[in-house]
UniProtKB/TrEMBL annotation:
Highest rank taxon of the organism: Bacteria
Record InterPro entries: P-loop_NTPase, PPK2-related
Organism name: Youngiibacter multivorans
Name of the protein in its database record: Polyphosphate:AMP phosphotransferase
Pfam families found in the cross-reference section: PPK2
Key words, A-Z: Coiled coil
Residues in coiled coil: 258-285
Domain Polyphosphate kinase-2-related, residue spans: 10-228, 263-485
């Protein structure tokens, strides 16, 4: 008697029907509680990933479920970091995303030279990026379920033979990783061990009998979702502190910038013209060498960010840069991890993204005003460092400027804006309220700079008490950093 003949398929069908009902019920809870879910299917070619993915799709409500198939990167995707396509395609809160292959397959295809992406000097650094990517999502409340399908060679050949015999499915036997099984398995063994953390362990499924594999997958999904919902409810009942944990004044990066440093108009014009010419050349070189550039402007209200950005972009080709003005997140942005909206704006290779305020809002206004819990902003230091490391690993230049003005200078500028009909729109009640919290904002910024000032993405504090000096100093800083990065290897 064969092993197959001993299987009670009616019993498996009954169990599956019950699991499908349970999965649908849990999905409605997931949606109501706004819990994002990512479900990954990995395995060798023709191991049953498509079959299990489809069974799961059929069990779920299509309105709140998205399917994403990993593919050979397009030309546009190759001009951004490897994890970009997954970062921008992360689920909204309350949605379930299913991934047919994932960042693991894409990484293996890269190191096995299935496509060219020469931006990475150390491709192994992507293993850490994968860990960081998953940790950021999990810490934000994402439920990550990872399946690895094991299949015998005999069963795999049976699947491939059936695909080749049918003209309509022949193409599936020839997908880009079909001849890559041995190397894929070798690398996945390492990644399975490395990526098997307790928050998102790998679940192994033996694909011998389809019905049995489907039920095992559905059992795992429902079990993990049940535990995730219980954990979500437990955490929701906990008191979430939002006091910012401020400890009072201390020395920091902003010390010593109250004094005004001035520059004469003639010198200002000469230096500005020269720096803008050099910046134009920098832009052309960035494009030629396919190097992305981030320029982040942070600083006090009325600190001169807008005027600085205007002088930076004045000489530039507008087809190769974009200015991103960061305001309060809209509804779509609130339904994602806070870094999602910045992943959608990162520059492709050879282009420039300029940020008038940025992801650092989580460590300043969100911490000070209590928009983020103590736990959320505390872990954001490392999350932001990881985000920036992902960009610089890809070869990007990241420059972060903080424009500092004294409290007295800010008051003068506020009063000028208040009395000028052409500028009164720039001043709001919120700006005046923020002045009342000056000291804790200083503490927040000092902490931010101390913990996110990295060699690959340094902070530069600019004395902004004199607008002309600040514009020259900021542009000079940007040009010099870019020239050093762009020309140091060639010796120019």
């Amino acid at each position: 008697m064969s092993a197959i003949s001993t299987i009670d398929f009616k019993e498996l069908k009954k169990e599956k029907d019950e699991l499908v009902v349970r999965a649908g019920y849990l999905q409605r809870l997931i949606m109501a509680k706004k819990i994002p879910v990512m479900i990954v299917f990995e395995g060798v070619h023709a191991s049953g990933k498509g079959r299990l993915s489809n069974e799961l799709l059929l069990a779920l409500d299509a309105r709140y479920t998205d399917f994403y198939a990993t593919h050979k990167p397009t030309e546009d995707e190759l001009r951004r970091p490897l994890l970009w396509q997954y970062s921008v395609n992360a689920p909204t809160y309350g949605n379930i995303n299913i991934y047919y292959r994932s960042w693991y397959s894409l990484y293996i295809a890269l190191i096995n030279q299935k496509f060219e992406l020469n931006r990475y000097t150390d491709k192994k650094s992507l293993v850490k990026e994968i860990r960081d990517f998953e940790k950021t999502l999990i810490d934000d409340g994402t439920v990550l379920i990872k399946f690895y399908l094991n299949i015998s060679k005999e069963k795999q050949m049976e699947h491939i033979r059936k695909m080749r015999e049918n003209p309509r499915t022949m193409w599936r036997a020839q997908e880009y990783d079909a001849e890559n099984d041995e190397r894929y398995e070798q690398e996945m063994k390492k990644l399975l061990k490395d990526g098997n953390h307790s928050e998102a362990p790998w679940h192994h499924i033996e694909y011998d009998v389809r019905e049995r594999a489907v039920n095992e997958m559905l059992r795992t999904v429902t079990s993990v979702l049940e535990k995730a919902i219980a954990e979500h409810d437990r955490k929701s009942s906990e008191l979430k502190e939002r006091d910012g944990k401020f400890k009072g004044p201390k020395d920091g990066a902003l010390d010593g910038f109250d004094k005004c440093i001035t520059i004469e108009k003639k010198e200002y014009r000469e230096k500005l013209e020269n720096l803008q010419q050099r910046m134009r050349e920098v832009q052309y070189t960035l494009y030629q060498k396919k190097v992305p550039l981030f320029v982040v402007y942070e600083g006090w209200d009325a600190g001169g960010k807008g005027g600085n950005i205007k002088r930076l972009v004045e000489p530039l080709d507008p087809t190769m840069y974009i200015v991103n003005t960061t305001a309060a997140p809209n509804e779509s942005e609130r339904n994602h991890n806070y870094l999602w909206r910045f992943w959608t704006t990162i520059p492709k290779s050879g282009h420039i993204s300029i940020y008038d305020r940025s992801w650092y809002g989580r460590l300043m206004v969100e911490r000070v005003e209590g928009f983020a819990t103590n736990q959320e902003w505390s872990r954001a230091y490392q999350e932001i460092n990881d985000f920036e490391e992902s960009q610089t690993n890809f070869g990007a230049i990241v420059i972060k400027l903080f424009l500092y003005i004294s409290k007295e200078e800010q008051l003068t500028r506020f009063e000028d804006r208040q009395s000028d009909p052409n500028k009164v729109w720039k001043i709001t009640d919120e700006d005046w309220r923020n002045r009342e919290k000056w000291d804790i904002y200083v503490e927040a910024v000092n902490d931010m700079i101390e913990k996110t000032d990295k060699k690959n993405a340094p902070w530069i504090v600019i004395n902004g008490n004199d607008k002309r000096y600040a514009r020259v100093k900021a542009l000079e800083t940007i040009v010099e950093i870019c020239e050093k990065k762009l020309y140091e290897k060639s010796g120019k």
